[in-house]
User: Fold these one by one.
Assistant:
Number 1:
Amino acid sequence: MPSKVQEKKSESSRQARMTTATGFLIIFLLVAGLRWLDNIKDRWYVFDPMSLHELSQNAIAASPNNTAGMIEHIVANLTATYPSTQIKLNTDTSEWMFNVAGGAMGAMYIIHASITEYLIIFGTPLGTEGHTGVHTADDYFNILVGEEWAFTPGALEMERYTPGSVHLMPRGVVKQYKMHKGCFALEYARGWIPPMLPFGATQVFTSTLDFRSFFRTARITGREILRNILIGKI
Ligand SMILES: *[C@@H]1O[C@H](CO)[C@@H](O)[C@H](O)[C@H]1NC(C)=O
Ligand SMILES: *[C@@H]1O[C@H](CO)[C@@H](O)[C@H](O)[C@H]1NC(C)=O
C-alpha cells in the first residue's frame, strides 16, 4: 500500500506533466495562429505597389522640380481614389516629424498607417546614410527627388535609384543605404507594421533623447492606426 507521501509525490508529478502539456499546447496554438494570420494578411491590403509606382511617376511629371507639388498630387489622387470608408488618409501635408533610425536621419509625413500597411513621404534635403533595418514588411521606396544608393555585403558596385524608379526591399532583406545629397521618396510598406515601429524609436533612447519628436511620432502613428481600426481597416 503506497504511503501518503508517495501519493502526494505522484500527484504533483502528474500536475507538472499537465502543466507542461498545456504549455506546449498554448505555444502550438499561438504559432499556428500567427502562421494563419501571416498567410491571410493580404486580404487587408488596400494599396498596390504598381499603381503607387505609376502615381509617383505621374506626380514627378506633373510637378517637375517641385517636391511640395508632387506630394499634393499624390495626396489628392489617393483621396480621390480611395473612399474614406475603406481607408483613412492623413491629408495634412504640413504634419512632418523627424525620424532617426539605423543611423540615418530625415523627416517624414505619414499619409497612412495601419496594422498591415503604411505610406509615408520620407526624405531630407541634406542627404543621409545608414542601415535600412530588418523589416517585417515588404518595403517599396519610390524615389521622387534625388537619388538613393544601396548595397548588400558582397556587392562591389552600388545599386542606384533615381526619380521615378522604385527600390523594393523584401521582408527580411537588409542593406546599407544613402540618400545622396537631397532625396525624397514615397515609401510604401506592407506586412506587419507594429514590429517595425521599435526600429524607428530606439535611437531616441540611445542617442538623440529627442522625446518631443518621439511623442509626436507615437501620437500621430497611434492616431492613424486607430482611425483605421475604427473603420475595420487592419
Ligand atoms: C490616380 O493615379 C493613378 C496612377 O497614376 C491613375 O491611374 C488614376 O487615374 C489617378 N486617379 C485620379 C482620380 O486622379
Ligand atoms: C530644375 O531646377 C534646376 C536647378 O535649379 C534647373 O537647372 C532645371 O532646369 C530645372 N528643371 C525644370 C524642369 O524646371
Note: The two ends are 62 Å apart (CA to CA).
Number 2:
Amino acid sequence: MVELLCNLIAQKSISGHEHGAVELLASWAHTRKLFVDLWSNSDSELTNQFGPLTPHISLDGRPTIVIGLRGRGSGKNLMFNGHSDVVGVSDSSRWSCDPWSGVRRDGAVIGRGACDCKGPIVSALWALKSLSATFPDGLAGDVLLEVVPGEEDCVGLGTMTSVARGYRADGCIVLEPTRNRPRRASRSGIRFEVATIGEAVHGTVKWLGVDAIQLMRKVLDSLEEIERDRTDDPMDGLFDDYPILRPITVDKVESRSSQGTLCERCVAIGYLELLPGDKMEAAKARFQDELLKRCHGKGVAKNRVVIQFGEQYLGHCTPSSDPFCEVARRSAAASGVRIDGDLGAFNSGCEAGVRWSLHSTPTVVWGPGDLANAHAIDESIAIEEMAACAEIFARTAIEWSGREVET
Ligand SMILES: [Zn+2]
C-alpha cells in the first residue's frame, strides 16, 4: 500500500500532467487482472455532449482510467471516483522532505497528493484487490474506480469524460479526505476575477492619479465582510461543522505597473464557495451587487471595479434517507467509525456534482485523511486510516452491489 502510494506521489501529476500517474495505475491493475479501460477525450467531444465548458487546460494527453470488477448485471453498480491531478508546490524548501518522493514517517506518508487524493485512491484500489481475491467472478453489480484528470483546475470536467464514455452508477463514492466519514453533500463554487482600474502617474504626484493597489485593498476588505455577513439559507445546518458558511478565498493578486508609478490595474482571483442549494446565476448577481455596493461605501467609484466569472461547479446533496447513505453509515460503523446524527457535508467542491446533477446518482464523499492537510505543506496521510478505509470500502461494495445469489 505504502509503496504504491509513494510511487503515485513520485508521478508529479500537477493538472495537465496526469498521464504518468494514470499509466502507473493501469499497469498496477493489469498485473492484478482487474478490468481496465484507459482513454482520452478531446474538448470538442465533451462540448458536443454537454455544451460550453468552463475555462480549463486542454484535455489533450490527459487520460481517464476506469479500473475494477465487472459484475454479473444483477446487482447495483458502485463507482469510486478519484482525481489523478494534484496542486503544485510553491516553495519546496518549506517542506520537511521532498514533496515529490513520498516519505514514510511516524505511521504516515508525506508528499503532495498524499491525502488529496492519492491516498484515498489507494484505499479504493486495495478494496478492489481484496474483492477480486474473494469474488474472482465479480459481485452481482459492477464495482469500478474512475480516476479522472483535472479536478484541481476545473472541477467536474474529468467526470464528464467518464459519463461521455458511457459509465453509469447506482451509487458513487467520491474519494476525498473525510477522515473515513461518509459525507452526503458537497459545495458548489464559482471562480471570480475582480479587477480594479487605476490611473497611472509618477508616485511623487500621486494625488493626480488613482492607485489600483489601494482600490484593491478596499475590494479585499469588502470580500472579507461579505464572507462574514452572508449567513442566510444554511440548509438545515448541513454545513454546521464549519465556521464559515460560504468561504471566499482569493488565491492570487496581480498588478500591472511600472517602477515608481501608481498602479493602473490590479486583479484578484479566487473562489466563492457556495452551498449545493444555491442557484448559480443568482449567486453571481448577488456577489457582484454586494461587492460593488460595499466598495462604493468605501469611496470606490463603480466604474473602477470590474467583476468577471470563470469556472463553476455544482455541489450535491443526497437525502439522508437514501439507502446508499444507510449502507455507508453501517459500513463505517462496522469499522468503528461512528456517526451520530446526520452524515453532514464535505466542506469543499469536488467531482460529486456531475453524476448527481445529470443522473441523480446517490453520492457520498469519503476517504482517509484530513481536508485540513490537503494542498498544505507536508501533506500527509495516516497509513492505518488508509488500510481501515480499504476495509470499509470493500464492505460497502459487498453490501451495495450484492453477492451473486445462486438460484
Ligand atoms: Zn481532491
Note: Residues 252 and 349 are 19 Å apart (CA to CA).
